[in-house]
Write a structure and sequence with these properties.
Elements: E1 2-13, E2 16-27, E3 31-35, H1 42-50, E4 57-62, E5 65-66, H2 72-78, E6 80-82, H3 95-105, H4 113-123, H5 139-151, E7 157-161, H6 169-186, E8 189-193, H7 197-203, E9 206-211, E10 214-219, H8 221-225, H9 228-234, H10 238-242
Parallel strand pairs: 3-8, 3-9, 6-7, 7-8
Antiparallel strand pairs: 1-2, 1-4, 4-5, 9-10
Helix pairs in contact: 3-4, 3-5, 4-5
The structure holds adenosine-5'-triphosphate (ATP).
Keywords: ATP-binding, Nucleotide-binding, Transport
GO molecular function, one term: ATP binding
Pfam family, one: ABC_tran
């Protein structure tokens, strides 16, 4: 079943077409990777899909419901959550409290939220850090907390904006494994923007390539990354593509 349908969305900023007539669909339970050089429009596309920005034109449908330009809380209720590239947890709150706040924002009662949040904290591997103030977390912990806050709304589709950025290779593998279990065991559909090609190759069922706001191509990971147009679009960006 098609869970997410994005049709011909566009967004301009003062004449610059950051996202230009982009369409794609995501099947329930699948993983879509979105790649493209810096400034290709990936984050803007996420913002259009997740309701952070209204598109100038085009539509977004989630499980058949039109959510184009809907406010983030409505989109959350419809079953979509996202993580941010720049994480903004409440620094003075503990890991558990941060996730409980997100759980309450998604409709849980004050009484039930802590226990439900604790399940999510366990799920993302932060049990040991549960009562730590979130501002004291290392980057890998903050990334997991960001995932937990998004998972707290029990989404059907999760949009991940560079969830591996800033992690050293040894920290990336367990996060990739976590993403795989979220898909396999919880049936969560994943759409992720990522510069680290090894992760894109490992996780994606299909890949969408953006360049200058437009879809350059899409398809299976191996096919897409060997496409001369994709290699050309990335020329001069080797270090970023390979990841830090
Ligand atoms: N709020 C804004 N106002 C003006 N221009 C913007 C705004 N947001 C994005 N842009 C421009 O839109 C284009 C696409 O930016 P976007 O951040 O979506 O690209 P990206 O593919 O996510 O890049 P990166 O990989 O560097 O994160 C860029 O030229 C950027 O400067």
């Amino acid at each position: 079943m098609t869970l997410l349908e994005v049709e011909s969305v566009s967004k301009s900023f003062r004449g610059l077409r950051a996202v230009d007539d982009v369409s794609f669909t995501v099947e329930e339970g699948s993983i879509l990777g979105i790649i493209g050089p810096n400034g290709a429009g990936k984050t803007t596309l996420f913002n259009l899909v997740a309701g952070a920005l209204p598109p100038d034109t085009g539509s977004v449908r989630l499980a058949g419901t039109d959510v184009t330009g809907a406010k983030p809380h409505r989109i959350s209720h419809a079953g979509m959550a996202r993580t941010f590239q720049l994480m903004k947890p409440f620094g003075s709150l503990s890991v558990l409290e941060n996730v409980a706040v997100a759980r309450m924002a998604a409709g849980a009662s004050r009484r039930r939220a802590p226990a439900e949040a604790a399940d999510v904290v366990d799920r993302v591997g932060l049990t040991r850090w549960r009562d730590a103030r979130s501002e004291g977390l290392p980057t890998a912990g903050l990334k997991r907390l960001e995932l937990a806050r998004a998972l707290a709304s029990r989404p059907r589709v999760l949009l991940l904006d560079e969830v591996l950025a800033g992690l050293v290779p040894a920290e990336r593998t367990p996060v990739m494994e976590l993403l795989e279990t979220l898909r396999r065991d919880d049936g969560i559909t994943l759409v992720f923007v990522e510069h680290i090609m090894a992760a894109v190759m490992r996780l994606s069922d299909s890949v969408l390539v953006l360049d200058q706001g437009r879809v350059l191509t899409s398809g299976e990971p191996h096919q897409v990354t060997q496409d001369p147009r994709v290699i050309e679009a990335y020329l001069g960006e080797e270090p970023t593509v390979a990841g830090p």
